[in-house]
Design a protein that fits this description.
binds zinc ion; Rossmann fold; eight-stranded mixed sheet; Ubiquitin-like (UB roll); alpha/beta; 3 domains; Metallo-beta-lactamase, Chain A
Length: 565
């Protein structure tokens, strides 16, 4: 693409985020030009506290389904759950080729085979049917009207890529999640030179990671943690050492293994997701582990405590993760106690502070030494790194992505500092259609987007009504009122009251027998007046509801059941 003699595009380029704005997670963005659509990333979000029983949240891709004939492929920036977590679910609906770097593809392939196993009864075989191509840095792929180039970046997982997306309207640079790390623990530093070259040729829009846009300065290099780990290992020479971090933080695991090796300790990895990621990284030669350093938990039993390091999941206080099972004494293989040291190598994600504190308290009560300060660096760019990327790329338009609204606004403020007028900064919401011409950018409409809730093997079968019921059951329990009525309308048994999660029955026999009386009076009154069963049910609900509210100020779910005999 030369600067002169540019062909005049006949249409606009559309950028449509289908998730990932207003929230952390669920990153997925469609790029559309005439009859070509490509999709960048395919992430999931973890459920909010009030989404009871929900395992994960995936994006609604009905827009892609409606335009399936245009879909050329999925292009993935890196292997974190908020970028690849929904890919199997989405590919099962809208199959298309997938393009990613090596480790990212390895993790995607694991997801596809897991999905295939769970859905083998339905004859699903994504591993066979989905075409996949491993892309190397600097390589470009052609997808309809688009050409996509992968650029090396740094993050907390190796093989993270930024994308230069060339279209007839112009080039859009999408950073993915990134930081600038001049001394990464594995692989090379971010390809700043390539950002500059692309910038020189002219960039229409920059879509840049906003996660740390509120933080001044630079994010420290992963390597700055090495002396901190050295110190902690030195101070806890006689302890068995546990380190809790994110399963997906491959670089951190590498760092911990370095220190362990230096101190002559063996390392075991615990937690299913972490074992999978480290296995995949090792198989694809994306992590170097000194020989005889990594052992299994069973092999660890033969090794003296002061020669052990156990890297574990659960740094966010997740109740099902390995660390929390160790802390509450329910782990199958590991008993933790006095003489052990636990290092938290992560910061709690906002919202997770309480469960993390709970685990720290549990560990301290068991006599465990706990270290949780300054043992983490972020994988995302701070303000000065964001400014650097803007300065290299020199985009016409700024489109902040990845983050909650306040993070997007923080990046908008940075762009303004750099001289961008407000009309050159576009803050999008999920579903917005941003239409770009060679010199224009405007939001022209909206497509339907939303959260699809996954509970067990059910996808989308739990909606708002079910969630509200679950919230109510969780908060105040349930009262079931059973009775038998003949077809002539004669009450012959009940009403009997059964409750769960409402009151401790032994202590409250009086209250429940009073409630039965209230129910009986209501039912008899209804039968006398010839009311039908629906009226009986509603009246029982109302009278028991009033009675409970008056006595306990609670609102349990009330479920009347009438059996016809
Ligand atoms: Zn990430």
């Amino acid at each position: 693409m030369g600067n002169n003699n540019k062909e005049i595009p006949t249409s606009k380029l559309k950028i449509i985020p289908l998730g990932g704005l207003e929230q952390i997670g669920m990153n997925i963005t469609a790029f559309e030009y005439e009859d070509s659509i490509i999709v960048v990333d395919c992430g999931l979000a973890f459920p909010q506290d009030d989404m009871l029983g929900i395992d994960l949240v995936i994006p609604d891709v009905s827009y892609i389904e409606e335009n399936y004939d245009k879909l050329k492929g999925f292009v993935i920036t890196h292997g974190h759950e908020d970028h690849i977590g929904a890919i199997a679910y989405i590919l099962a609906r809208v199959g298309a080729p997938v393009y990613a770097t090596r480790l990212t593809m390895g993790l995607i392939e694991h997801k596809l085979s897991e999905y295939d196993k769970e859905h083998s009864a339905q004859g699903v075989n994504l591993s066979e049917t989905i075409r996949r191509k491993v892309v190397t840095f600097g390589q470009s792929i052609n997808l309809g009207a688009f050409r996509v180039e992968f650029i090396r970046t740094n993050h907390s997982i190796v093989d993270a890529a930024a994308l230069a997306i060339y279209s007839p309207v112009g080039c859009v640079v999408h950073t993915g999640d990134f930081k600038v790390d001049y001394t990464p623990v594995y692989g090379d530093s971010i390809d700043l030179q390539r950002f500059a070259e692309i910038g020189k040729k002219g960039v229409l829009a920059l879509m840049c990671d906003s996660t740390n846009a509120e933080r001044p300065g630079f994010t420290p290099s992963e390597k700055t943690l090495a002396p901190i780990f050295d110190n902690l290992f030195e101070q806890n020479k006689n302890s068995r050492i546990f380190v809790a971090t994110f399963a997906s933080n491959v670089d951190r695991v590498r760092q911990i293994i370095n220190t362990a090796y230096k101190f002559g300790r063996k390392v075991a990895v615990e937690g299913r997701s972490m074992v999978n990621i480290i296995d995949t990284a090792q198989r694809l030669e994306r992590i170097e582990i000194p020989e005889n350093t990594l052992v299994t938990l069973d092999e660890m039993k033969e090794i003296p405590a002061d020669k052990q390091v156990i890297i574990t999941t659960g740094s966010q206080g997740e109740s099902m993760a390995a660390l929390s099972r160790m802390a509450d004494g329910t782990h199958r293989k590991i008993t933790i106690g006095a003489g052990d040291t636990v290092i938290f190598s992560s910061h709690p994600i906002p919202g997770n502070e309480k469960p993390v504190t709970k685990i720290i308290n549990q560990l301290l009560q068991k006599g465990v030494r706990v270290a949780y300060q300054d043992v983490h660096v972020s994988g995302h760019a701070c303000q000065e790194e964001i400014k650097l990327i803007y300065s290299l790329v020199q985009p016409k338009f700024s489109v902040p992505v990845h983050g909650e609204y306040k993070h997007l606004m923080a990046q908008a403020a940075i762009a303004q500092d750099l001289g961008f007028s407000k009309d050159r900064i576009k803050i999008l919401s999920s579903g917005d259609i941003l239409e770009l011409g060679p010199d224009t950018a405007e939001i022209t409409g909206k497509v339907s987007v939303g959260d699809i809730l996954v509970d067990g093997s059910g996808v989308g079968d739990v909606g708002n009504v079910v969630l509200r019921d679950r919230q109510r059951l969780a908060a105040d329990g349930i009262i079931i009122v059973c009775m038998s009525i003949t077809s002539e309308g004669q009450l012959i048994a009940g009403p009997d009251i059964v409750s769960r999660g409402f009151v401790y029955i032994k202590e409250s026999e009086d209250l429940l027998s009073q409630a039965s009386e209230v129910a009986l009076m209501t039912v008899e009154k209804c039968i006398d007046s010839g009311a039908d069963w629906n009226v009986i049910k509603t009246s029982v609900k109302d009278s028991i509801g009033d009675f409970v509210w008056k006595n306990l100020k609670r609102k349990p779910m009330i479920l009347p059941i009438i059996e016809e005999v």
